[in-house]
Amino acid sequence: MFDIWLAIYDTLLTLGRVFIDIAFAIVTGWLLGYISLKSKTFENIYISLSEIFESVPVISFFPVVLIFFVFSIGGSLGIELAVLFLVFTAVVWNIWMGIYQAFKTVPSEMEEVIRNYRFGFVGKMLRLYIPFSIPRIAANLIPSFADALFYITVSEVFSIGTKCYEVPGIGTLIAQYTAEGDYTDAIYALIVLGIFTTTITLLLREFAEYSVKKYGLDTEASLKSFKRGRFRIRYSARLSNSKGVFAKLGKYLTKPPYFTRQNRLMDEEEEAKKRKIPINMISAGIGILLLIIILYGAYSVIISVKPSTWSYLISTLPQDLIDLGADYLRVAVISLMSFIFAVFVGYYIARHTNADRAIVPIIQTFSAFPAPAYFPLLYGFTYTYVSSIFGPFTNEFYVLLLGFISTFYYVFYSFWIGVKNLPSEYWELMDNLKLGFWTKMRKIILPATFPYIIAGMSSTINSAWGGLAIGEYWPDIYQSQTLEVRTGLMKALAVADNQGNLALVGWLSLIFAIIVVIYSVLFTRKMMDLARKKYVAEEGIYAA
């Protein structure tokens, strides 16, 4: 008999782990984002490492989990920390990238005001950077929540070789029901989880709407200045939101105690700056130290591997590169599908209030529902029909489908919030010029949302690997059937992990990391810089 109270308790445990990781990701993202502004050296290291770790599937972290948490700490505490770490590796990167993208695209006029008033670190963060990053954080909270639930079923119950580790949670409960063939109770548990995820995603959606209205720069969503022929100041984004950044700032700073103190200490501060170590040197030092620690850890692992093992690993390199190429092709297909979905569906619902209210909650609930929990049932119920259409490409279809539903929401939410956060002056211009859909997209919408698109596409590309890691080799997915592709690096990783071959797991992860570093340097960093230089829509308001 289904125990509903056990399902509710396990769901609350799972959600508690998710929000602990999300809160920690936001706080650390603010700090790392600010440091990256002050040091190009740290920025290069930070972005490259973030790209690597975001792309590396959860499977690749298992050796780290095994060594540092399961073996070193041990017991239930070690396993609990291991689960928190695994979920953290799934949710943190897009939040960090969203905050970094927000900090990098703060309008220069706002930064100039902050500099002129000589704010310190805390003042800059509380009065400019954190408020400006809120819409980006809100846009990434929903996919982060969804991604956490996606990976929770493979994190609360994880195995390395023949050894299985688990903690109480809804992922463990659903896995137990599925393993026992109790699909009825598994569906009931999914319903309980669905109720919680629906409620939370609706709340996160309201927070996203609120963040745009409060912290967006004169957006159409918040610009309700005229109602029934009267100008209403409290609904004006230009007067209200800008007041929060500038007028309130000026009012605070012109108070006699602060103004007097600033004048009195101005000369002392200038003198102190001459003696103080520049923050960019400190930031660069932190980044270099972090890189040294990682390289030392890699060196320790390398020298611990036998020469005969290295010979075997190096001999697999040609096939590994072929596998990697096949996976990049899959990622390209998934990313293209996600981008097309985001542009057309995201634009439509952002511009139609009724569709926004009806469709977004559905997408949010669907994306927040952990695919590994229901995908085996979907696979079992649709396999006969799908195989009759795709034939020998049936498994490829399911792998691409799993990759799409596990990652499409990153670029979708980013583009959706970018359209909603577009200053109202742009919409007025497009309406006055009577621009068509394609002209709007090509000349205004896509360029204006470019920073959001880059942040979303970066997370989409990097997170697609997680879906491939699960789908390319999934033994006993449904009634002893195995979902498996012929060629793929993620399949090779999964098979090596299933066999307990940690040396091969580490080697494949190393090859993957090198390719991701090249990608991060050639794509993400350059696109972020381009977005800052040419495509910050808010700066167009000041220019006008």
From TrEMBL:
Keywords: Membrane, Transmembrane, Transmembrane helix, Transport. It is found in: Cell membrane; Membrane. The keyword Transmembrane helix applies. CDD domains: TM_PBP2. The keyword Transmembrane applies. One of its GO terms (cellular component) is plasma membrane. Residues 11-204, 324-523 form the ABC transmembrane type-1 domain. One of its GO terms (biological process) is transmembrane transport. It is a multi-pass membrane protein. InterPro entries: MetI-like (IPR000515), MetI-like_sf (IPR035906). The chain crosses the membrane at residues 12-35, 55-74, 81-103, 186-204, 282-303, 328-350, 362-385, 397-419, 444-465, 504-524. It holds the Pfam family BPD_transp_1. Belongs to the binding-protein-dependent transport system permease family. This is ABC-type anion transport system, duplicated permease component. The lineage of its organism: Archaea, Thermoproteota, Thermoprotei, Sulfolobales, Sulfolobaceae.
